Amino acid sequence: MIDYSNRQKALAYILAGIAGYVDAMGFRHLGGVFVSFMSGNTTRLGVDIALHDWSKAGQVAGIIALFVVGAALGAWVGKDGRRDRRAAILWTEAALLAVAALSDNFSLAIVGNVAMALAMGVENAVFQRNGAPGIGLTYVTGALVKVGHRIAVALEGGDKWGWVASLLLWASLCLGAILGASVYGMVGLAGLWAACAVIVVLAILAG
């Protein structure tokens, strides 16, 4: 995140928090399947296939496919060159989160599952540059690797605090997950309205 301004870093922390929040809700709602963490889902898919649990494997594979479709949608909506590309991506994410929240009122679980996975895929396009996704917002393995590498640099006399930004990105997702899991226990997917509201505010500010 070295090449990003402080304002962009703050946006990344907020969006990572939203990703953790939504992912935790999806995890509880789907009984152990993620809607944003595809590395975890890939391992889960492999285990389910090995155990011949075809029903669960099919569910996980479906979520992975939806995430990829969401990523493609986000890249298309926010294609490079559009002046309002970031706002367009955020409005798309907000709409999908609203659909997921509404699904809870009508007992349409499958709609909520689809919308959450699509929304998380879309979010990763917010920082895309020249077709590349930029900051990973819904996954933080890379951020933790950077923490370790930059600590090594610091120990060798380099930038003493270069690891902090990546650690904060991880912490933001973790905090969001804590909040999401807690809120889901109280109100279910209706808690997604809070995430939707935050994204709407960000979209307005980005417009």
Note the main attributes of this structure.
globular, 207 residues, single chain, 8 helices, mainly alpha
SSE order and pairing:
Blueprint: H1 6-29, H2 38-50, H3 54-77, H4 85-103, H5 109-123, H6 141-155, H7 164-187, H8 192-206
Helix pairs in contact: 1-5, 1-7, 1-8, 2-3, 3-5, 4-5, 4-8, 6-7
Structure description:
By secondary structure, the chain is mainly alpha-helical. The protein has one domain. The chain is 72% helix and 0% strand. The chain contains eight helices and no strands. The radius of gyration is 17 Å and the shape is globular. The two termini are 23 Å apart.
Structure, briefly:
The chain contains 8 helices and no strands. With 207 residues, the chain is mainly alpha-helical.
Main beta sheet: strand number and arrangement? none
SSE order in H/E notation?
Answer: HHHHHHHH
From the spread of the alpha carbons, the general shape counts as globular
The structural domain count equals 1
- Strand portion, in percent? under 5%
Distance between the termini: 23 Å
**Global structural class:** mainly alpha
The residue ranges in which pLDDT falls below 50 over 5 or more consecutive positions are none
Helical content stands at over 70%
Extended strand count: 0
Radius of gyration: 17 Å
Number of helices: 8
